[in-house]
Amino acid sequence: ERKLGTMELLLTFPVKDWEVVLGKFFASFAFLAAALLCTLPLAVTVSILGNPDDGAVIGGYLGCLLLGGTYLALGLWISALTANQIIAFILTAAACFFLYIIGEPVVLSSVPDALAAFVANLSVGYHFDSVGRGVLDSRDLLYYLSIIAFFLFLNIRSIESRKWS
Description:
Blueprint: H1 7-12, H2 17-37, H3 40-49, H4 54-81, H5 85-101, H6 105-108, H7 113-122, H8 124-132, H9 138-164
Helix pairs in contact: 2-4, 2-9, 4-5, 4-8, 4-9, 8-9
C-alpha cells in the first residue's frame, strides 16, 4: 500500500487497524482455501478407486490450511515492515523456510540435547507431520492458531506504530 500510495487512503477510512489486518488475512486465507478446494476432486477420485485413510486425507487438508494460514500471517507481517514487495517476498520465503527447517533432524543434531525438544516444537513441519497423518492433537491446533494470532498481532502493532512516525 505504501508503494502504490493507497496506505494514506486506507488509513483515512473509518476502519480500525485490526479490521484491515483481519480483512487482508481472511481474504488471502479464502483464496488459499479455494486453491485447496480445487484439489478435492483428486481426493474423491482416489477414494472411489481405492481405500485411502480418510483421517489422513482430512488431516492433510486441515494441516495445509493451518500451515498456509501460518505462512500467510507471517508474510502479511513481514510485508507490513517493508516497502518493497520483492524484499517482503524474499524475507517471507526465508522465514517460512526457517520455521520449517528448525525441526528437521539435520538442524536438531547441532542443537544441544536439552534444547532439541524445545526447538523441534517451534517448527511448523513438526506439527504438520502429526496433523498430516490424521492425528488431530489439540497441541498442534493450538500451536498453529497461536502462531497465526501472534503474527497478526505484530502486524496490527506495526501498522499502528506507522501512524505515529
